[in-house]
Amino acid sequence: MTFKIAASPHTHQRRTTQQVMRWVYFALIPGVLAQTYFFGFGVYIQLALALLTAWVAEGLCMRMRGRPIGHAWQDHTAIVTAVLLAVSIPALAPWWIIVMGTAFAIVVVKHVYGGVGQNLFNPAMAGYVLLLVSFPVQMTSWPIPAELAQIQVSITDTINLIFTGFTSAGYNLEQLRMGIDGMTMATPLDSLRNDLNHQLTLTEALNKPIFGDIAGIGWAWVNLAFLAGGLVLIKQKIISWHIPGGLLVGLLVPSAIYWLFNPDQAITPMLHLLSGATMLGAFFIATDPVTAATSNKGRWVFGLLVGFIVFAIRTWGGYPDAVAFAVLLANMCVPIIDRYTQPVAYGHGGRS
Amino acid sequence: MTVVTALIVLGVLALAFGLVLGFAAVRFRVESDPIVDQIDALLPQTQCGQCGYPGCRPYAEAIANGDEINKCPPGGQATINALADLMGVEAKPLDSAHGEEDVKKVAVIREDECIGCTKCIQACPVDAILGAAKQMHTVIAHECTGCDLCVEPCPVDCIDMVPVPVRPDNWQWDLQQIPVKNVESSH
Amino acid sequence: MSAATKAIEAGHIWTFPGGIHPPERKDRSNTTPIEVLPLAKQFIVPIKQHSGPVGDLLVAVGDNVKAGQPLTQVGINNALPVHVPTSGTVSAIGPGRIAHPSGLTDTVITIDADGNDEFYSFTPLADYTTLSRAELLDRIRQAGVAGLGGAGFPTAQKLALQRPLDYLIINGVECEPYISADDRLMREHAQTIIDGTEILLHIAGCEKALIAIEANKPEAIAAFEALLPNYPQLALRVVPTKYPSGGEKQLIQLLTGRQVPSRGLPIDVGLVMQNVGTAFAVAQAVLNGKPLIERVVTVTGDNIAKPGNYWVRIGTTVAELLNQCGFNPVADSKQEQRVIMGGPMMGFTLPDLDVPVVKITNCILVPSNQELAPAAEEMNCIRCGACADVCPAQLLPQQMQWLAKAKDYDGLEQQNLFDCIECGACAYVCPSEIPLVHYYRKAKAEIRNIAREKAKAEVARERFEARQERLEREKQERLERHRKAAEARKKAQAEAVAQGGDNPQDAVQAAIARAKARKAAQAAAAAKQNQEGDDE
């Protein structure tokens, strides 16, 4: 009788990459539901388009690189990239936006750099930035939250809008985004930055229908839903709390200080935390293991850096939101963060 | 006058910097091995002469004088790469005119056939063969470099080059190569 | 007394970074007392079961031997002897598969048991304090005691280091899943372990011992708690359950907050550690004179009908052991059975069952493929850092994995590869199922090999240069000899001439003249002959 020869350890925790990724996209469900509730069924269509593109792009890349295709589909990392990009872009954006972004994320950002685990930049965010700088109009045309909209968009209208640009009644996206006052409605962050730039005080700027009691209508709930999903991930030990913690602290502390000294001209810390892609970024994007720092100390620094860059760009930069830029900039700093936060190995003079 | 001042100033400066540089050259002198020693340190020291020189040191001197770096089969590609790195030249494949890369071997004398002619003792470049005229010879295995030079002179062909055996202490963790034999089921 | 020492005295338990909590599954084997199995018919005793040199053989094929009789001797190289497990006849001495991950062979002594189990005579010792330190160490060495925790380092050698010691640590942590050999030994033989600890303290010249037990062994803790009030120099320390808290370096960190310096020894920080099994063996060796010929082995796993702990004579084959414990191999032809010597984290698989139980064998694990699923295919690293989070040595496993794959050995040494204790925590958590530890082991072996080759090349160069020098010297000497001989000859001639003898130079001249004359005469004769011929 012969026996199997194997290397130790002979036991394994059995949490595969696939399972890790599955937890990540399951944890995105509350956020996706909240987005659907406020911004319509477009989210699902974007998701479907992103997944299809990712699946095809991944397969093609693996074939061109002469690697087993099934292998790549199995690890589910492409699914997470697709889902993250789909929930980041406006729900009613034209179909080619998401297709282009996802294809770029998978083909250029991931596979050109050597596939899973080798990419320097977060694929979803690199795709997002490409889209944002190339198609600023489409990428900032968020639908207005359902409760404020004049015209409710049906499923068929959503499909028509995404694929043709017009609803069956002939409205285009721009018209749908008109508020009751006949003005095009921007996202809370967009609107605030415009108004503050036009020398309005914070109180005046907040005096718009898009702002609810705590933060932007819809946006606050979407952020809270992502927060809930993120907490599940921490509870399940899929992600460590260091990056989200660092990011939120890095955003909250400077914004609070700035707001205290400048109450009329600054975005409130609460708005910072609950608008835009803050929570999505903190729990799902910055925590991408491939492109984030390795050690816990490094993760702290990485999170703080992302948070601070988000604050800086939102306050002084040219874009209303900044999570994607912040993540990419921090990605670039990862090697140096890793270098200076490497833990002292046992027996090399560190203290226990 | 100004020209003189300028000359004096420049002269003083030159002197000062010269002194500083001179001091630095003495104080911070870096002792580096001569290039021949550095090359010799990379060679495997089998002293086999397959490169065409009578030993590693002579080959090291030849490389320092511009000979090719790919003439050492016992060192193999790893040595060629290291030499290329040191000499700042392109690494090339081993020159097969000098032999092929092979597993490490050690010479073993079939002692009952040895006639005690001492020819192998004279051939051994590292004095790793023990014996005297008309007495049986034997190889000090852990001093043997596996150079092959003792095989040729032996008049009775009693020297074998055998691969160095794998022992638990030099085993390379090749789990795939564990010999698995079939035994009867124990029940 | 410094604050740190006060904390140690007060029983403070520090912590170590990382670590994992794999399923323990110790209750399968630790609920029944240690059993004694019937003796096997044949025993295979490898002559090397420890780290260090091997002793010279004392027996030959055909010798009748008794249990406990030494098979090899300490000799001049201070080797550790091995002993006869039971009475019988030496039937073979030669290569045989040894208990090593490589499955390679080494010299083994085969003994056919006669079934009488007669013992060699041992000399008990009533009061060990009457013997000198050197005599006690010799007694332990002669008994063949090596560290039973896993490394197999000769115990006497560890104790022989005479350096200031703060504490002796007795390691009863046994953090590997499944294994309960030390647990049962502590429950059933706490008194002997304490006796052994006192002897170790006496030899080491140390004042205090800390006995460390993991919190998941309440019965063993109770056994010691009942006895320890009588021994003020011994203290019990309960450490939290976490793998690998039983690792030497980790346990030192837990109990004292100190770190053994990289590539150093515990004694560098004033500590010495011994396993509970070793303490037991030391007590047996010193008090009863009984050599190490048996140990407790846990036999466990889903495919064992009668899991438990057994007193096993060293040299018993795994086949025999499994036979007696009921072995049901995996029936599925596609998935092979694994037989692991040691635990699931650090044990190694056996290629076949002819391997004998040796001094360091604490467990034979025969799992089903459901309880310990075979390793899945290796996937790409996603840099999740889970490995770095669990590494008790604070290394960066993923970084080292890339360096190992790239064969960047300098980089690996910079990343402190040799501080890796190969505990397997990183590979346990890796979501991509990368066999990380295996890469490190290979790289370590390769680095050691390169170092060995380098040292050998250095020796070869020295020998080559020495030989060149010798040849040159011999040549010079030869020339010198010739020169001297020539000079002596000249001198002798000159002297001879001066004394009126023949000048050899003249003799030469005379010889040349003679030769010329002869030639001339021959020529003349020939000419004459020709003339005569013409005349005819």
UniProtKB/TrEMBL annotation, chain B:
GO cellular component, one term: plasma membrane
Location in or out of the cell: Cell inner membrane
Chief subcellular location: membrane
Keyword Amino-acid biosynthesis attributed: no
Keywords: 4Fe-4S, Cell inner membrane, Cell membrane, Electron transport, Iron, Iron-sulfur, Membrane, Metal-binding, Repeat, Translocase, Transport
Region (Hydrophobic): 1-25
Assembly and oligomerization: The complex is composed of six subunits: RnfA, RnfB, RnfC, RnfD, RnfE and RnfG.
NCBIfam families, sorted: PRK05113.1, rnfB
Record-given protein name: Ion-translocating oxidoreductase complex subunit B
Originating organism: Pseudidiomarina woesei
Protein's gene: rnfB
